[in-house]
Structure formats: C-alpha cells, structure tokens
Design a protein that fits this description.
The complex is a heterotetramer of chains A (594), B (510), C (306) and D (284).
Chain B lengths: L3 E5 L17 H8 L4 E3 L6 E3 L2 E6 L5 E6 L13 H12 L17 H5 L9 E5 L2 E5 L7 H5 L9 H7 L13 E7 L3 E6 L13 E5 L4 H9 L5 E2 L5 H8 L2 H4 L2 E5 L2 E7 L9 H10 L2 H7 L4 E3 L22 H10 L6 E8 L4 H13 L3 E8 L1 H8 L7 E3 L5 E2 L10 H4 L17 H12 L6 H18 L2 E12 L4 E2 L2 H4 L13 E2 L1
Parallel strand pairs in B: 1-10, 1-11, 15-16, 15-17
Antiparallel strand pairs in B: 2-3, 4-5, 5-7, 6-7, 8-9, 9-10, 12-19, 13-17, 13-18, 13-19, 14-19, 20-21
Chain C lengths: L1 H28 L4 H6 L5 H11 L5 H13 L13 H36 L4 H15 L2 H15 L11 H31 L2 H8 L4 H39 L4 H11 L2 H29 L7
Helix pairs in contact in C: 1-12, 5-6, 5-8, 5-12, 6-8, 7-8, 7-10, 8-10, 9-10, 10-11, 10-12, 11-12
Chain D lengths: L1 H10 L1 H18 L1 H4 L36 H36 L3 H15 L2 H12 L3 H29 L1 H8 L4 H37 L11 H8 L8 H28 L8
The chains are: A alpha/beta (594), B alpha+beta (510), C mainly alpha (306), D mainly alpha (284).
The structure holds adenosine-5'-triphosphate (2 copies) and magnesium ion (MG) (2 copies).
Family (chain C): Belongs to the binding-protein-dependent transport system permease family.
InterPro entries (chain C): BPD_transp_1_N, MetI-like, MetI-like_sf
Subcellular location (chain C): Cell membrane
Chain lengths: 594, 510, 306, 284
C-alpha cells in the first residue's frame, strides 16, 4: 500500500445556530494514500463541504469550528497548527478546488496574477520565472491559448476554462493532497467529462492524492478508488468503489444507489418508466401542442442612441408537436435555449412563430393571454423555493390559480385545495405553512399542485428536478409519471440530465445553439443517436457503475460557441431529415457541433 | 502713510462703483477711493467742500456754482476737471447705469428726461470752464449740498468707465486717498495709499486689507488674537457683554451715535392698522426697554422717527409711553376687544427674529395675536412694497440709516406719499397730503438763513407723523467700534457718523 | 466606450437643461422683484420700469428663459443683479476654495470612513467594531452645523490648535474638511463594513486563503478592490450631498466658496447667481456620477460601458 | 408581525437604546403641555440678567434660558413636537411619493416608467438643500410648508430604491410564476410585489426620519425653517448660534438633542433593515 499522507480521526465540526451548536460533521475518520482518489459522496447538507473546510482550516468564522478530532498530514496535526504555519500548508501541501468556478476566481484580477500569486507565495521567485511557471501549469491543464489566458480576466473565460484555471492554481505547487469540492457540479456534462478526464490524467502524472467531493454517484463511479458515503455528518459507508456500488452495506447507501437514474437503464424499452415501458398509443389523435418556427431573439442595445446592436439568437426556428398524454423532453447544454422555448410557450416573453395549443392559436403579441388558453398550459419551475411567493401560505398559493380564474370559491375551493394536497402527497394541514417551512421536495410538490389546480392539458417542467437530491428527485419523477398515467396530461420536460430524460420521456428533442438538431422517439434517439452533438452528449454522461468506467474522454472536446450575433446574421437552419419513424436529424447545419 | 491694517466683513464687497455701491461694507470704502464736491469734516456731520474749493448759491436757491480744486489727480494720473463732474452725474441718472442713487438727483434740471433715457445728460449741469461747474435746479433743494457729498455723486473718470464698462466696480479709479491694489473675489481686497492725494499727510496708512466672508464672532475672536484690527460688522451681539465686561477690551471699544432708527411699520391700508387707535395701541404696547435689554443695551429706546443726532430731533416729545392697559382700551375702542390676528414680517438674520418675538409677546399681552414671517431680506422688502402684503414689518437689518444728515432723508421715501407706491419703501403706506405739502415747503427753504426755520418745520412734521402713528419707533442703535490696540485715531474718527465703520483716511497704526 | 460617454454626456446635458428650466421657473415665481432691488429705495416707478425692461424682466417667462439659455450656451451666466459682476467670474473666483474643501472633505471621508469600515469588518462583533459603528452612527446623525460649531469651539476657540475660520493655509482647511467629512465618513464606514463583510464571504476570498496567502495580501489585493466597487458609485452620489453641505459648512467657517456665494445670493434674491450656482452644482453632481461610472470599469473589468 | 418585529428589536442592544431614546423624546413631546416647567414662549423677566444675558443652567432653569429669557428645557420639549411632526409627516409623504413613483416606474415600464425615472434623475441633480431653500423662500415657511418642502426633496432617494427593488422583484421567479398562472397586473402588483416592498418602505420610513429631522434643523438653522416663536431644535440653534462661546448651552444642548434623535432613528431603522430583510440575516 502506498504511503499514507492524510489521516482524519474522529473529526467533529460544529456550527453555531440560534438554537445552540449543531454538529455537522460527526466523528468522521478516514485515511488518504498517495496517488489515491477518495470520493466523499452524500446528499446535500450531509457535511461534505464542512469536512473539507475543516481540513483546510477555512471554516467560516466565527459560526463554525472544529470541536474535536485530529487531522494528521504526514503525522502533524493540522488542527493544532497556528494560522501562520497553516498558511504554509494551504496551497502548498493541500490545495483545494471549489464548486463554483464562476465565483471562485477574483473578478478584478487577471488569471496570470492569480495564478502567479499561488506560485510565488510558497516559492518566491522572480517575476519572469513566475510567468513561465504559470504558463507551464496552464499548458498542463490543457487550456486553449494559454498565453492569452494569462492576460484575461475570469469573466472572459467559460466555466470549463475557469475550472481548469482553478485546477492549475491548485496544482501549481505540486501539493500532496488535492481537495476538490464538487468541481464539476456547475458544469455541463461535456465540460464535466473534460475536467474529470483532466484530473485523472494529472493525478496519473503527479501522484497527488485527491479527495473528491460530489453528490453525483456517476462521478463517484467514474473517479473513485475508495468511497465514503456521508449522511447527516456521519460516514455511513466506506470502502472500495466496487464494494460500495456492488454490495452496499448500509440501507441509506442502498436507497441512494437505487434512486440514481442510470443512463441506459431503459435500453430496449419503448415507453417511459412510469408506463412500465409501454409506448404511447397515439392513434389518430391530433397534436395537443403544435409549435412551428418558434424564434426568440433578445436585443442587445448600445451606442449613442441605445439602438439594437446585437442579438442573442436564443431560439431559432424550433418546431415540434406534443400529443395528448405524451412527454416530450428537450435536452441540451446550458444556454442552448431550452428554458427560452418553454417560457415562450407560456407567453412570458415576446416570440415569433406559430403556436397552437388544443386547437387555439396563441397570439404572440399579447403578454396577457386570454385566460382560457392560459389554463391549458402550466409550468413548474426549476427552483421551487424561488417560484413560490415566500410571504404566502402554501394553501393560498395552491388556491390562487383557482381564484384568479374564478373556478372555485368558498368551501369548494377548500375541497379542491385539499384534494390537490392529497394528490401530490402533502399533508392537508401543511396548507397553513409558508414555503420556507418545507423541504425542497415538498416545495416542488406544492408547485406541482399549483400547476395542476387548473387541470391543464400540458405542463412545462423546466429543470423541475435538477435542484433536488436524487432520492427526492426519484419521488417527484414518480409523482409526475403517476399523474400522467391518471389523467393523460402531457409534459414538455426540459432537462440537461440525460439519465432523467431517458427515464421519463416518450420523445426527445436535442437542442443545440437554439435549434433542434435531433428529435424522435426516446428509444430511437438514445439507442441510435445520429447527430454528432447527440452522440457527444450521450458519451459525456458518467455512468454510476465503476465497471463501465471510461478510460478516455478524447471524444469530448471544445466549448459551446456564443449565440450572440450581429444584426445582419442569418442563421443556418437545421434541415431536419427523417431517418426513421418520427426520427428527424439535422444533416447539413451546425457542423461545428462535433 | 505707514503700516497696514486688516478689516473684516461677513458679506462680500459687491462693487466699488460709486454709482452703484449701496451696502454697509462698500459705502466707506468707496468714500476712501473717490471724492465728491462736498464732504463732511472727519468725525462730524459738518459739510465742507472737498473737490470743490468753494461754492456759491444763487439767491433763489436754484443755482449752485462750484469752484473746483486744481491739480487733483485721478489714480490713473489724469487731472480732475469740471467735465468729470458733469459726466459723473449724467452717468448716475442714466437708466443704463441702474444706479440705486439716481433718485437723489431729481431736483436737478433735466432729471426727468435724463432718467427716462430720453436725453443724454442733465441739462442742469453746465461746465463753465475746467475748474467751474454750475448746477441749475428745477426747485430749491435744501439738501442739495448733502447730496453732493453722497457716494453717488463721487467723481469718476470717463475713460476708466469706458474701459471697464460694467466691470468698473471691480476696477475703480477715483481721486480718493486710497486706491485698489488687489481684489480676490470672495476673499480679500487690498487698498494702498494714494501718494498724490490732495490732502497732505492723508491717508495715514500704507494699505488696508479687507477680508470678507468672516463671521462677526470669528472676526472678534481674531481681533482678540491680534489678527484683525477692525471688525467691520461691529461687535456681534453674542460677544457684546463679554467684551464690555472685560477690562482688557473695554478700552478698545468706542461708542457713538449713528443716524439710525429701528421701527415697526404698521400698514395703514390693512386692517386693523387702518385704524389709528390700533396703531397708537401698538405704540403703547411695545416694551422698548425690554427689547433694548434683549439686545444687551446696545441701543436707546426711541419715540420718534428721527434719531437724536439728526437735526430736527424733538427733545421735548415724549411719544407714546409704555402702557399696555391703555393700549388694551384703545384696541377695545377700535372694536377689537376680543383681540385681533395679524402678521409681522422680519428679516431672517440674528437678532431680528428675536426682536420680532419680543414684539410679538408684547402685543400678545394686549390681545393681538401676531404671526411671524421670518424671510430673506429681499422677500421682506418685496412684501413691504405691496399694499396688501405685510401688515407689520420690523425694519431691523434693512433699517433706515440716513444717507445724509438731513431730516428730509427720513421722510420722502419712507413716510411720504411718493414712497407709498408699489415697490416703494413706505411700508406703512402712510400718505398724508398735508404733511407732504409741508415737507415740500421745508425742502424749498434752501437759503442758509432759513436753515433754522426749516429744521423747526421738519421737527413739526415728524411730530405730527407720530400723531398718526404709522410707525412704532423702537430704538436708535448705538455704534460700537472695537479696534485693535495698535490702531490709533481719535474716538470721533472711529465712530464717524458718515464713514462706517471708521474713516479709513484718518486712522493710523502704532 | 466613446459612444457610451457621448450618450451619458447627452443625457447629462438634458438633465442640466431640465434643472435650468425648473430652477428658472421657481426663481421666476419668487415674490421679490429684482428691478426694484436694483433701483434702490429712492427710485421712481419709471426707473424701476426702465430697469425691468433693460433686464428683459417684462418679457414672458419662456422668452426670458430662452434668452438666458441662449447666453448660457455661449458660456455666459449673466451678470449679478446686485454685484454687477459676471456670475461666471464670481463662481470661478470661488470655485477653487470649494473644490479644495471638497477635496479635503473627500479625503477625510475616505480615510476615516474606509479605514473604520474595514477595521469593523475584520474585527466584526468585537468591541472595536461596535465602538466604530456607534461612532459612525453618530456621524450620520450629526448635522453638519452642529459638528462645525462644536469643532470650531473646541479646537479653535478653546484649544487654539487651528485658526478660527478663514482660508489660505493648510491649517485653515482642517476643521472645515473634517466637519464636512464627518457625515460622509459615517456613511462610508457603514457601507465599507457591509461591503467588506460581503466580499470576505465570497468564494474567491476563500480561494485566496486556500492558496496560503497571508492576511494582508488577501485583504488588500483580493478583498479591498472588490469591496470598493459599491463605494465608488456612492462617491458620485456624495457630490450632491456636498453641494448641500457647503452652504452650511462654509458659512460656519467663513470659507470663501460658492456655498457662501449661494447663501448670500439667496438672501438677496440675486437670481443670476442662484441660477449659476445651481447649475454648477447640478453639473458637479452629474459629472460626479458620470465619473464614478467611468471609474468603476477601471477597477472592475466585468463592467463594459455600452 | 408587528409584535414579532418589536420583540426582535428589543433583543438588539443598540436598537433598544434607539427605541428608548425615541420613547423618551416622543414622550416629552407629547406630554410637554403637562410636564414642561414653563410656557415655551414666555419671555420671562427673570430669564435674563439685568444686562440682558441668558441664564446658564440652574435649579430654576434646568437647562438655562435663551436670549429672550425663555426656558430652554421647555422649548426643547415643545421643539421635539416640531421635529417629530416634521419627521413623521414630511418623511411619510416622501416615502409615499417615492414609493408610488418607484413602483409605477419599476413595474409599468414603457413611457410612463421612463418619464418618471427621468424626473427622478432630474431631481437627483438638484442640490437638495439649495432647492429646499428656494422652495421655502417661495412658499413663505411654516411648519407644514417646511414639511412639504422636505418631502419634495426627500422622495427621490426612496423612489430610486423602490424602483431598483421593484425591477429586481419583477425578475424574481415567483413573479414569473404568477404571470404563468394568469395573474393580472394588479394582482401581482398589490398581492405579490407590495408586501415585499413594504419592509423597504418601513426601513426608509424610519431611516428617513433621521434625515428629515436633520434637514429641518438645517433649514431652520439657515433661517428658512419653522417660524419663530414655534420652537424647533434647528431654529433654537439658529437663534443662538452666535452665542456658542458666551452661552454654549444654547447651542450644544439642542445640538446633542438633534444628534440623539437622528441617532435613535438610525439605530432603529438599521436594525429594522436587518430584521425585515432576510437576506441580510447574520451580518451582525
Ligand atoms: N455557515 C453555516 N452556518 C450554519 N450552518 C451551516 C453553515 N454552512 C453549512 N451549514 C450546515 O452544515 C451542514 C453541512 O453543510 P455542508 O455544506 O457541509 O453540506 P454539503 O454536504 O456540502 O452539501 P451540498 O451538497 O449542498 O454542498 C448543513 O446542514 C448546513 O445547513
Ligand atoms: N432575457 C434575456 N436577455 C438576453 N439574453 C437571454 C435572456 N434570457 C436568455 N438569454 C440567452 O438566451 C440563451 C438561451 O437561454 P436559455 O435560458 O433558454 O438556456 P437554457 O438552455 O435554458 O440553459 P440552462 O440550462 O442554463 O438553463 C442564452 O444564451 C441566454 O444567455
Ligand atoms: Mg457542499
Ligand atoms: Mg434553463
């Protein structure tokens, strides 16, 4: 066994709350060896970040403090070191990468400056040497045009590039231990794949021991040598990655793994999971929603007279149908126009094109759509907390659409609200409480109840489960499926998570740069992806199975280009050609996708 | 001259153009920069020729002939001539000059056309030769010689006025004892002695530094530290007692009288003051002694419009004695037994609002409910100039300080019918045709032999005015000048009744 | 960038135009009649009428205003009614004093305010922090005339450390600057404290610490410039407060700036001066804000001027 | 909610101090007719020395007398009425106007919003004090006029703040969600936005009182404020300011009173800001 570098023993970390100290890391112990990757997994709030901050001595002051235990780095107890000595450890012996590449770099300093600082702090050297070393590490993290990057500011880089810079900074002094706290959570899957691949390659070259913190079991399976699963501050399971995945001892771990959606789990099945895999029998039904040539552009103004100078081509000529009882999913990476499509259907922003819902054409001009049309489409948003007025009780919130549309009042209203609460699995007495008194999953149930209250024919669900922990996510997905089975409601399901989409959809549309590049039955798209972008997307998804680990991420490179163009820009429209039953793929346009 | 002194003022010096300057601060500066045909003997109100060596008056009092002093040089080196006299007065009455003093010269022949801009100059001024100038009047004017001593009649050289145009006031050129050396707007002015001044040995100083923007209290503190020689705004009320009770400073203070009366105007056009009984009642109700106490005894209670120093002051007149009970009775007789409400306007600079409040309390005791409007001076003046705006005005801060020591100056604009017009200064809107006629008669008594009789007539006029009680004369303010110990001058010079605060030409330093 | 500046200047010009209309209209409505004041107390009605005509005061409002505006566009603020001097000249003569005072006050504000705020944030919830915060609360609560008179009394009259008012040397500048800066220092320290607390919680500060940087470096290089950003916008707004403050502070200390000029003019309703000072102040405010907006991108590269 | 907020306030030492000061000052203002030792307008004969100087603090006149021989303590108590009335009325009006302008401009964008915001920009460019002085001179000051003048000058900041807040509020997801369920403009404005703006308004209502009290004092100090003999803390100082060396109590006692009152409102307002704005939680 390689040399033991870090040893954590009985670590207890507490945070001060209004009701007294709360233990958030509770007697955690583990060892870390040279060249090893230890994953700490667990759901939100389980204490993963607190653990890493405790080790680094960077707990938020004065709320949190280490209440007991030892953190031994090659035998020295870090917890006993004075701040001065700890500074020599940080960045030098133990380096750290944080979750949010967007906010973890100082916005007012150049990359070169921030990187140079990391180098010269622990190893004072003349400026020119610092520069060449900085350049060297940037090259090491395989960033494009490294010389140029040195002079750039963080906001000029994409998320993936920033995370590369963070890694470069962490590796600048060849640390013994690298702690990466959710380093890829904020990134798109393709970028995530690139970063994970990079970390693996670098580890191979330098032998740095990595503590990788993540809630994504796919990432764990991909990266870990050993795994610790945390729940409520305690390690409930630990062991080698294959042991944990194949023979989880703890019930919590088992539940967790069971809830994780796996890409490929539906291979060979036609319909979504909720229908036991049965495909929708469409028959002669007319489409419930018809969207033709939907285009949304945002103006960017500037110049002397604030004239439109550029446009964001958020959605370009998107067409699709949704049939009664069907779930159509839109997938694609950040910024590709998924949400904009959904919001345009809700008439929440100005759009062009043609939309027919349940036989009624929608007027793109009026923001205040006729109420009757509005009743047929409802929306569930990504962040359930943000989409509920925090000052109202959830009872009022669920009743509100009914009141607005004058559908019920008095005891009838009461009954209806009660029914809805029951339907989404919330206790009826919860109606008097405010949104902040609920958990994330419960809040999303409130949102669903609210959307259901008008008995819409179609619900647009925009990343409605992305913010939830996997176990909760599974429950909500199940609820959505049940509702569909019961009432034949249609969903437009917007998500970037391929595994979830696979589970829930009848049909899938893949969006890239504001256009649909591939659309078809879920099975056809997932099992026989035709467009290069779809392929790339599929291959980037980490599979929560340590045996299916990818050794090379070589397929996945490149960044997504910007959708901002000048006024005279004429987009190349994707020419969708049919290649199978209802399966359409863009052939000529958007070649850069691959 | 030798040495330099520092004088401070709170407000800016606005202009040094003698045709325009009419402020407390610039009045005596202009006097030191320019000379008129006439002047007063330093420290007194006695008229003497200045740029004139002599003058004659025709028997009908309609023609004045001045013989001019020879060899007097303007600061620019040119000799002063008779044509300058004519130019100066033509300029003052020319409406383009916008001189606030133009009206003083309304008795000169040709004034009407000249001041209306219809004629280029005054017909009544004739340049006889370089050293003789003759004035023809349209009516006898007993105060004419005083007017020739006014700043507005101080002689300016045409070429300098032409050169600087509207900015002549910033670049004054005169014949006076001092000339302007430096002027930093808003900060300081430096005057230096005129070596060619026509009176030998004058001025006694080398230079005078005037610093503006200095609060009176600050000025006094600086004077106590020896940084300032004369506090131009006098001893501030806040420091008065302190200074007067301090043996160290007591000797530095010189007091004197000035031609000032502080009064309350009662608008005879607005009820209840359209009733003479009410006006008399108010006269009896105001406790002047207490008001004088409130301003720390820096004044003497007054009972008539004229200040004691003014010829024509009636020493026998007792006025309305303080008698609130009698006042109440009078008010009842006038039909206001249940009291009456009215408004008192006052300028909003200390101590005026305080005095107004003292008056307010006095009137409250006889059942008059007085509301105070404490406004910027300009707004008070504007209100006074409208017949129906200001029932009462306390004149403090804008009060009448005589332009020249002659009783006529206290009548026309402020008590005569001529002033009771929109925009006028007769804020009582008091117009007694009979008295106006008497006033014209008095003004026509220009013959020196009639001087005595003329003064008697004026005395009579002002006593009769008090019967109608359009004013409440409250007090005559005393002058208190404090100077630094190193400054030497006779007391009379330090409280010169014409040059305020001091007669710069006659002071010296140790 | 150029387009941005041009647009902002255009906007500023429009605002100034608005300010001039409103002020002119307000002053037009003032009850005092300038012609009468100029004419003096011995003037006849004809003289007054004549002067009114000369000054164009008998014209309808809009014509008067357009005349004024026309002159203004040629850089002519008109002539003071009572001082008979070019208003531009009067303002120019006094502006340096006001600018000096402003510079002194801003210096005091920033020095005291930023230091106190930063110390408060670093030592948050200690007695040092609490004391500083109470002092800055007093700062924002104390009227400038009270502070001014108090300082004058204490440091000039009683202790004699500084001259009692006046203008000229550095020691003259100290008390007025401090009296004027005290209020702003209070604001800045409170803003700085919360801004700094905000920044110290940011991820990039944690990153900097994770790199093993020393406290001073984390503070000055990473936290300080970021904490400064919201404060720069404040400095722009501050200029408006200054313009109000100078009227009071200059009169307490006898400082020969445009505040005193304005105050004297208001007392005597010398309309051209009031107009001029108002416009100059409005200019300063608008310029201050523009400048602040232009400075921010120099520190913060994320902000692009469009 | 009111009680809860109060309970929170009382928990904070500084806010409690502020509350106590406000209660004392408001109490003495309200009870002045009964507890003030003298009539505030009575120019007492024995209130001045024979020479006419004011009396320093003594057993007879606890805080001394002013230049007209009136009892300073009584005048301060009645002056508190003025300050508080102006503070509450003027600032209340300012908050109302500001909130109205801000909400309308922020919520109904388009030409109405543009016009309102341009007007606000215009007002921002005015030197506030100068404007107030001119307005006060124009309307001949009285208690209510002064209050209105102050309101005219002070609404601008409120409008700015409310505008920004309305704008950011209308970007919030829950407002979008309301649009999505078909809520009308007015429902969104009154049921969903206003309650969120209320806390800002409450904070400004308190913090603004401090500013207002100071502005009134400054106007009075410059002699264009509340008319004598009605006492206001500002005009007490104005009347007596030149006496700061010979009768310092006449200047510094009211000066301290003004500072204390403004301080108290600032302390309470600041605490309210913390309490009412959950995102600010944990800052102190
Ligand atoms: N500053 C803080 N003050 C109080 N409690 C805190 C603070 N930071 C974290 N906590 C609490 O500590 C617990 C552990 O938090 P931690 O951030 O370690 O969770 P995590 O496992 O990293 O979750 P996530 O996946 O959401 O990042 C949580 O219950 C959280 O509420
Ligand atoms: N209001 C707006 N103004 C300008 N640009 C916008 C606006 N809303 C969205 N965009 C731009 O339109 C593009 C599409 O955005 P959209 O939110 O639809 O992406 P998305 O696919 O939902 O991404 P994500 O997964 O990050 O939610 C992006 O480039 C985005 O920056
Ligand atoms: Mg975490
Ligand atoms: Mg989205």
């Amino acid at each position: 066994m390689p040399e033991k570098i870090l040893e954590v023993r009985d670590l207890v970390t507490q945070v001060a709350t209004s009701t007294g100290p709360k233990t958030v890391v509770d007697g955690l112990s583990f060892d870390l060896h040279r060249g090893e990757t230890l994953c700490i997994a667990g759901e939100s709030g389980s204490g993963k970040s607190m653990t890493s901050l405790s080790i680094m001595g960077l707990l938020p002051q004065p709320m949190a403090k280490v209440a007991g235990g030892k953190v031994l780095l090659r035998g020295d107890d870090l917890l006993k070191l004075p701040e001065r000595a700890m500074r020599d450890i940080r960045g030098n012996k133990i380096a750290m990468i944080f979750q949010e590449p967007m906010t973890s770099l100082n916005p007012v300093l150049t990359i070169g400056r921030q990187l140079g600082e990391a180098i010269s702090t622990h190893d004072p050297m003349p400026g020119s040497k610092v520069r060449s070393r900085a350049l060297a590490v940037l090259k090491q993290v395989r960033i494009s045009e490294p010389e140029k990057r040195l002079k750039q500011y963080p906001h000029e880089l994409s998320g993936g590039m920033r995370q590369r810079v963070m890694i470069a900074m962490a590796l600048a002094c060849n640390p013994d231990v690298l702690i990466a706290d959710e380093p890829t959570t904020a990134l798109d899957v393709t970028i995530q794949a690139q970063i994970l691949g990079l970390m693996r390659d670098l580890q191979r070259d330098t032998g740095t021991a990595i503590i990788l913190i993540t809630h994504d079991m796919g990432v764990v399976a991909e990266m870990a040598d050993r795994v610790i699963v945390m729940n409520q501050g305690k390690a409930v399971e630990s062991g080698s990655v294959t042991d944990v995945f194949e023979a989880p001892a703890d019930p919590y771990t088992r539940g967790l793994l069971a809830a994780v959606p796996r890409l490929g789990a539906m291979t060979g099945i036609d319909g979504p999971a909720s229908t036991n895999g049965n495909a929708l029998v469409r028959g002669m039904a007319r489409p419930l929603v018809t969207v033709r040539d939907l285009t949304v552009r945002f103006d960017i103004r500037g110049g002397l007279l604030q004239r439109v100078q550029k446009r964001v081509h958020a959605v370009e000529n998107v067409s699709f149908d949704i049939f009664p009882g069907e779930t159509l999913s839109i997938v694609g990476e950040s910024g590709c126009g998924k949400s904009t499509t959904g919001r345009a259907l809700m008439n929440l922003l100005p759009w062009q094109g043609e939309v027919v819902i349940d036989g009624k054409e929608i007027d793109a001009q009026s923001r205040l759509q006729t109420k009757s049309v509005r009743r047929n489409v409802q929306m569930i948003f990504q962040d359930p907390y943000a989409s509920l007025d925090p000052r109202m009780t959830v009872g009022e919130l669920v009743a509100e659409p009914l009141v607005i549309h004058g559908l019920a009042h008095g005891s009838e209203l009461q009954d209806r609200v009660e029914y809805l609460f029951n339907r989404v699995g919330l206790p009826v007495d919860a109606a008097k409480r405010h949104p902040h008194e609920f958990s994330g999953g419960q809040r999303q149930r409130v949102c669903i109840a609210r959307a259901l209250s008008l008995s819409p024919k179609v619900i647009i669900a925009d990343e409605s489960v992305s913010a939830l922990d996997v176990s909760v996510q599974a429950q909500v997905l199940e609820l959505l499926g049940e509702l569909q089975a019961e009432s034949g409601i249609s969903y437009l399901f917007i998500s970037h998570d391929m595994a979830v989409v696979e589970q829930i959809s009848h049909r899938v549309a893949v969006m890239y740069m504001g256009q649909v590049v591939e659309i078809g039955p879920r099975r056809a798209v997932f099992e026989n992806p035709q467009h290069p972008y779809t392929k790339k997307l599929m291959s980037a998804v980490p599979i929560p199975d340590p045996r299916k680990r990818r050794e090379h991420f070589s397929l996945i490179t490149g960044e997504i280009p910007s959708p901002v163009h000048g006024l005279d820009y004429q987009p190349d429209y994707a020419d969708l050609t049919q290649i199978g039953a209802q399966h359409f793929v863009a052939r000529s346009a958007i070649k850069s996708a691959a | 001259g030798e040495g330099s002194i520092t004088v401070t003022y709170k407000d800016d010096v606005s202009t040094l153009d003698p045709a325009i300057g009419y402020d407390w601060q610039n009045w005596s500066m202009i006097k030191s920069l320019f000379d008129g045909l006439m002047d007063y003997k330093p420290g007194t109100t006695e008229l003497v020729p200045d740029l004139a060596t002599d003058y004659t008056v025709s028997d009908d009092g309609m023609t004045y002939t001045f013989m001019l002093r020879k060899g007097v040089k303007f600061h620019n080196g040119r000799e002063f001539k008779a044509s300058d006299v004519k130019y100066t007065l033509d300029r003052v009455v020319n409406p383009k000059t916008q001189s606030p003093g133009a009206g003083f010269f309304d008795t000169i022949k040709g004034f009407d056309t000249a001041s209306a801009g219809e004629a280029d100059g005054l017909d009544g001024i004739e340049v006889v030769d370089d050293y003789t100038v003759k004035f023809t009047l349209k009516q006898p004017d007993a105060a004419f010689l005083h007017k020739m001593a006014l700043n507005f009649a101080h002689i300016v050289p045409k070429e300098a006025v032409d050169e600087w145009g509207q900015d002549f006031g910033k670049h004054p050129v005169g014949t006076g004892a001092f000339m302007l050396d430096e002027w930093t707007l808003g900060q300081r002015l430096v005057f230096k002695a005129n070596p060619q001044y026509h009176i030998a040995g004058i001025p006694k100083l080398d230079s005078i530094v005037v610093e503006v923007g200095q609060e009176p209290v600050v000025a006094l503190l600086r004077l106590q530290r020896g940084e300032v020689d004369i506090a131009g705004d006098g001893i501030p009320p806040a420091k008065f007692l302190e200074v007067m009770n301090d043996p160290e400073y007591k000797d530095l203070v010189v007091s004197g009288e000035q031609l000032h009366t502080g009064y309350v105007t009662l608008n005879t056009k607005i009820p209840p003051f359209d009733n003479v009984k009410v006006r008399q009642a108010v006269n009896m109700a105001v406790n002047k002694d207490r008001i004088v106490r409130v301003i720390n005894g820096r004044a003497v209670p007054a009972n008539q419009p004229l200040p004691p120093l003014m010829p024509g002051y009636n020493t026998d007149y007792k006025g309305y004695a303080f008698d609130p009970n009698k006042a109440k009775e009078l008010l009842a007789e006038a039909g206001y037994e249940d009291g009456v409400a009215t408004t008192l306007f006052v300028a909003n600079t200390d101590p005026q609002p305080r005095i107004a409040q003292a008056i307010q309390q006095d009137l409250a005791s006889i059942g008059m409910k007085v509301e105070i409007k404490s406004l910027a001076q300009a707004n008070v003046i504007a209100a006074g100039g409208e017949a129906d705006q200001a029932p009462m005005i306390w004149s403090g801060g804008m009060a009448w300080i005589a332009d020249f020591p002659d009783p006529s100056n206290f009548y026309g604009p402020i008590l005569g019918c001529g002033g009771a017009v929109p925009g006028g200064w007769n804020w009582s809107w008091y117009c007694n045709e009979e008295l106006d006629a008497e006033a014209s008669k008095a003004d026509a008594m220009a013959d020196p032999s009639q001087a005595e009789a003329r003064i008697d007539l004026w005395r009579d006029i002002f006593t009769k005015v008090m019967d109608d009680a359009p004013w409440v004369p409250v007090f005559n303010e005393q002058r208190y000048t404090i100077r630094s110990p190193r400054l030497v001058a006779e007391d009379a010079i330090l409280v010169d009744p014409v040059h305020i605060p001091v007669h710069y030409d006659y002071i010296a330093v140790k | 960038m150029i387009a941005y500046i041009l647009r902002r200047v255009l906007q500023a010009a429009l605002i100034l135009l608005g300010v001039s209309v409103v002020t002119y209209a307000l002053l037009y409505m003032l009850p005092a009649d300038p012609a009468r004041q100029i004419a003096g107390r011995s003037a006849t009605a004809e003289t007054v009428a004549n002067i009114r005509e000369q000054l164009g005061l008998n014209l309808p409002f809009y014509e008067q205003y357009l005349r004024y505006l026309g002159n203004l566009l040629q850089g002519d603020f008109g002539r003071s009614y009572l001082q008979k001097t070019e208003v531009g000249e009067l303002i120019a003569a006094r502006l340096p004093a006001t600018l000096l005072l402003m510079a002194g006050a801003i210096f005091c504000e920033l020095l005291l305010g930023l230091t106190a705020g930063a110390i408060g944030a670093i030592k948050r919830n200690t007695s040092v922090d609490r004391t500083l915060m109470v002092v800055s609360f007093v700062g924002v609560s104390a009227p400038q005339f009270v502070v001014g008179i108090l300082m004058l009394y204490l440091f000039a009259v009683v202790l004699g450390w500084f001259p009692i008012g006046g203008y000229g040397t550095f020691s003259h500048l100290v008390l007025p600057s401090v009296s004027m800066g005290f209020l702003g220092a209070g604001w800045y320290s409170r803003m700085m404290r919360s801004s700094m607390l905000d920044v110290l919680r940011q991820d990039y500060v944690r990153t900097a610490r994770a790199k093993g940087l020393g406290r001073a470096r984390v503070f000055f290089v990473h936290a300080f410039p970021n904490a400064l950003l919201p404060i720069i916008a404040m400095i722009g707004i501050d200029i408006g407060m200054f313009m109000s403050g100078i009227v009071v502070v200059e009169s307490v200390f006898g400082w020969p700036g445009i505040g005193q000029l304005a105050w004297q003019a208001i007392q005597r309703v010398d309309i051209p001066i009031i107009m001029g000072v108002t416009l100059v102040s409005a200019c300063a405010i608008v310029l201050g804000n523009l400048l602040a907006d232009l400075v921010v991108p120099l520190i913060d590269p994320r902000i692009k001027l469009r | 909610m009111g009680m809860l907020v109060l309970a929170e306030l009382v928990k904070r030492k500084l806010a409690l101090l502020g509350l106590i000061i406000i209660v004392i000052i408001a109490g003495s203002a309200l009870l002045a007719p009964w507890i003030a030792p003298y009539d505030p307008q009575n120019q007492m004969f024995d209130g001045l020395t024979i020479e006419g100087a004011p009396m320093p603090p003594s057993m007879q006149f606890l805080l001394g007398t002013d230049l007209l021989g009136r009892d300073l303590l009584s005048r301060l108590m009645y002056g508190a009425q003025t300050s508080l009335i102006i503070g509450v009325v003027a600032n209340g009006t300012a908050v109302m106007i500001g909130a109205l302008v801000g909400v309308i401009a922020g919520f109904f964008q388009g030409w109405i919003g543009t016009i309102l915001m341009r007007v606000t920009d215009l007002m921002m460019a005015f030197p506030a004090l100068l404007l107030a002085i001119v307005l006060a001179a124009l309307f001949k000051p009285s208690l209510w006029i002064v209050a209105m003048v102050i309101a005219m000058v002070n609404w601008v900041q409120v409008a700015r703040v409310i505008y920004t807040e309305t704008r950011s509020l209308s970007e919030r997801e829950f407002i979008e969600a309301e649009w999505a369920i078909g809520a009308s403009r007015f429902r969104i404005l009154f049921k969903h936005m206003l309650p969120h703006l209320l806390s800002t308004m409450v904070v400004w209502a308190t913090l603004g009182i401090a500013t207002t009290v100071l502005l009134e004092a400054t106007l009075s100090y410059l002699g264009v404020g509340v008319q004598p003999p009605t006492p206001s803390w500002g005009n007490i100082i104005f009347e007596n300011q030149t006496y700061f060396t010979s009768a310092p109590w006449l200047v510094f006692i009211p000066g301290v009173a003004i500072i204390l009152l403004a301080l108290a409102f600032n302390l309470v307002g600041d605490a309210l800001r913390d309490i009412l704005d959950p995102t600010q939680k944990g800052r102190h």
